[in-house]
Amino acid sequence: SFQTYGASFDAGLFRGRMKGNMLGLGVNLFNDKSGDGILRNMTASLGLAYHQDLGNEDHYLSFGVQMGMVQKSVDPTRFVFEDMIDQNGVIPGAVTADVLANDQFTYLDINAGVHWQSTFTDNFQMYAGGAVFHLTEPVESFLGASDNALNRRWVGHGGMKIGLSSNVVLLPSFIYMTQTERSNQEILGGTSIGFA
């Protein structure tokens, strides 16, 4: 079974004091249990962004960074390894010869990105951005391996809002993601239609 809990909060700060510019602050908490609690992922992160007005609050360029602590843990007493099984199934009270180097690890994870958005007319808006995740390429391993790094993930995205009439909008968008030296790539595109 799986249980996932999360909570987040974000707020814009100092917009009135910064002449249309603004700081953004966010907090994200995440707790995930997989396989009846055998694997657990607890993450707490803090994000900070700066939004620069490029003209009449219709055009913005934003920069952001997120830093978080990630803790992953397993309960090895609940594992069943090959040497704990015979022709009749699991051997009661069996102990495995396979030993984990760590039953938990913790690391700092840092992400950063940039985003541009513009409103050209009441019927036409555009946005585009990019981000990089896992800047520190942290190591994840319960076996003590030092070469199991969480590779950087690069993301690019964009889209438009096109007013077709006073109450119908077209929302085409795309996202491109790549990780592990371009061996894992994903491109998604689509369009939504909104009605007011």
How does this model look, in words?
The chain has 196 residues and is mainly beta. A hairpin with a 3-residue loop joins strand 3 and strand 4. The chain is elongated.
The gist of it:
With 196 residues, the protein is mainly beta. It is 0% helix and 64% strand.
Task: Walk me through the topology.
Elements: E1 2-13, E2 22-34, E3 39-55, E4 59-74, E5 85-86, E6 89-90, E7 104-121, E8 124-133, E9 153-163, E10 168-179, E11 184-195
Antiparallel strand pairs: 1-2, 2-3, 3-4, 4-7, 5-6, 7-8, 8-9, 9-10, 10-11
Instruction: Give the helix level as a range of percent.
Output: under 10%
Assign an overall shape.
elongated
Question: Percent of residues in beta strands?
Answer: over 45%
Assign the structural class, choosing from mainly alpha, mainly beta, alpha/beta, alpha+beta, or little secondary structure: mainly beta
How many beta-strand elements?
Answer: 11
Low-confidence stretches: none
Order of helices and strands: EEEEEEEEEEE
Could you describe the largest sheet, including whether it forms a barrel? 9 strands, antiparallel
- For the termini, the CA-CA separation is 40 Å
How do the strands of the widest beta sheet line up side by side? Answer: 1-2-3-4-7-8-9-10-11
**Radius of gyration in whole Å, from Cα?**
23 Å
Mean pLDDT reading: 90
Number of helices: 0
